[in-house]
Amino acid sequence: FGSTATTVQRDPSFSILSSDDIDYFVEILGEKNVFQDEDKLSTANMDWMRKYKGSSKLLLQPRCTEEVSQILKYCNSRRLAVVPQGGNTGLVGGSVPVFDEVIVNIGCMNNIISFDKVSGILVCEAGCILENLDSFLINQGFLMPLDLGAKGSCQIGGNVSTNAGGLRFVRYGSLHGNVLGIEAVLADGSVIDMLGTLRKDNTGYDLKHLFIGSEGSLGIVTKVSILTPLKLSSINLAFLACNDYLSCQKLLLEARRKLGEILSAFEFLDHESMGMVLTHLEGIRNPLPSSMYNFYVLIETTGSDESYDKEKLEAFLLRSMEGGLISDGVVAQDINQASSFWRIREGITEALMKAGAVYKYDLSLPVEKMYNLVEEMRLRLGLSAKVLGYGHLGDANLHLNVSTLQYDDSILAQIEPFVYEWTSKHRGSISAEHGLGLMKANEIYYTKSPETVRLMVSIKKLLDPNGILNPYKVLPHSPLP
Ligand code: FAD
Ligand code: MLT
Ligand code: ZN
Question: Where does the FAD-binding PCMH-type domain start and stop, copy by copy (predicted)?
């Protein structure tokens, strides 16, 4: 370990788990859903990046909302701290205990409740895995409005709780728009039914939004209703090379202007990110091997008319090539080639893990300025680290990653607080889509004003007065300024 050194202390107001507590959980959940064994706990105590490790002695797997309610009611009355956990693919240390919090994983709650083929509204339990939902919908002629590299493990409850962005955001927008309803269980066990399926509903405060992106700090999301788009018949994917960052930006503008409504993804990776994937992942080939370019861009179009869409894309590519924005490029000829292109972009996170230590930043920045930060970071770190820039260019979301063989506090000191100060100076966000978790709870002020944070703290106190839900995460541990 050795990521962001955390100086957080265990909150002494929390109780220590007793054998009576275990007996109670066995009584309500049955032995099969109460886990104390080393194997299961060591996996659940450690995050996907293997950077954060807790020491929980108990993992609970409820099978229905009523069981979640009973668990939380009991934990609240006993002052037992709880960490809600989904697929445990989060990248900011939010999904694992910091100390001995009880882990509550709702992965067994994975039923689809209903799907309306006319409206495209899906209602499901929050433990459904994203990829399974997408496969279900594809069979119905629809798809999930979000897609991310962790789709095989992450759960929709985790996606909603982190307000995950991902690869389709540029087309379908945020979960704040797509999630129509939520059922959540509060810290005291009360079940809040906000599981509406209406597009329009202005009856009072729209409280479901509090749970979207609150990273398990306000309640456990148990059910979700979500608006899903139709799966259109014609999908094209181009893998392109650009020589400089300015060309990537201009290409984005051109894509918006010329591809218009059929644009469904606009992603980028730099030369270092491509090198990382080629070095550390097996079976990957650079689709544009003749030369290593400085930047690669993936542009996907999704529409309903194959010949019209192809014509539109081809004309756009030709113009961009002639205008010098693109240096080289290839359009996927079939689904296999398209997934091999996506594998390059989606594989960067995994390749970085294989390379050793990784310092990961997820920033919203003005597109024009975004890559300056990557270059400045390279200058700061010199040969001591690899600095990668990739991300969701169409959403102005940069993933700045620093890769070294081992964690080293002197490297961390070169990166932080510089990266946060730089982002704040440009009025960006220090967490575009991954959340704050444990990693950035104390850094919230770089993006949010003290008054805003104070209001968040009041909301947290109202909904979870004993602070049992995901303590030490999201909100700052240090006193408010
Ligand atoms: P977890 O990691 O288990 O939990 C994440 C947070 O949500 C924690 O704070 C946890 O307490 C809380 N939580 C989980 N379930 C619930 C629930 N039911 N109720 C209340 N709180 C809950 N993220 C993006 O935004 N875009 C990407 O493109 C993207 N790509 C990724 C690619 C890879 C390879 C990996 C490993 C991660 C990626 N992520 C991405 C990050 C991560 O996958 C997302 O944050 C995802 O939404 C987390 O879902 P999860 O089920 O794994 O949640
Ligand atoms: C991505 O876009 O690849 C994900 O957010 C994961 C990452 O930032 O590495
Ligand atoms: Zn991302």
Answer: 52-231
Domain residue ranges of the chain, discontinuous segments joined by + = 19-108, 112-227, 234-348, 356-434
Domain spanning 234-348, CATH class: alpha beta
Partners of residue 116 on adjacent β-strands: 121
b/e code 50-67 from CB counts within 10 Å (16+ = b)? ebbebebbbbbbbbebeb
* Whether the CB of 54 sits within 6 Å of ligand 2: no
Closest ligand to C-alpha of residue 348 is 2
Asked whether the ipTM of the predicted complex exceeds the cut of 0.85, the reply is yes
Pocket flag, ligand 2, residue 362 (CB < 6 Å): yes
Q: Chain centroid to CA 174: how far?
A: 12
Which ligand 2 atom lies nearest to the CA of residue 433? 5
Architecture label for domain 19-108: 2-Layer Sandwich (3.30)
Ligand 2: centre distance to CA 107 (Å):
23
For the CA of 349, the nearest atom of ligand 2? 9
SS3 96: coil
Please name which ligand lies nearest the alpha carbon of 149: 1
For residue 281 the two structure tokens come to: 């992942």
- The CA distance from 230 to 144, in Å, is 9
The identity of residue 121, as a single letter, is I
Q: Which residues line ligand 1 (CB under 6 A)?
A: 48, 83-91, 94-95, 106, 126, 148-150, 154-155, 157-159, 161-162, 164-166, 215-216, 220-221, 349-350, 433-434, 437, 470, 473
Q: What is the pLDDT of residues 245-269, one digit of tens each?
A: 999 999 999 999 999 999 999 999 9
Tokens of 295: 């930047």
Alpha-carbon distance of 450 to 2, in angstroms, equals 29
- The CATH number of 356-434, from 3.30.70.2740, 1.10.3370.10, 3.40.190.10, 3.40.50.2300, is 3.30.70.2740
Say yes or no: domain 112-227 is CATH 3.30.465.10. Answer: yes
pLDDT digits (tens, 9 = 90+) for 362-403: 999 999 999 999 999 999 999 999 999 999 999 999 999 999
In single-letter form, the type of residue at position 188 comes to D
- The closest residue, in CA terms, to atom 7 on ligand 2 is 349
Q: Are the beta carbons of 471 and 101 closer than 8 angstroms?
A: yes
Domains 112-227 and 356-434 agree in fold: no
Nearest Cα residue to atom 3 of ligand 2: 346
Report the DSSP beta bridge partners of residue 238.
Answer: 299, 331
**What order of strands is seen across the sheet that includes strand 295-303?**
328-331, 234-242, 295-303, 263-270, 386-392, 397-404, 357-364
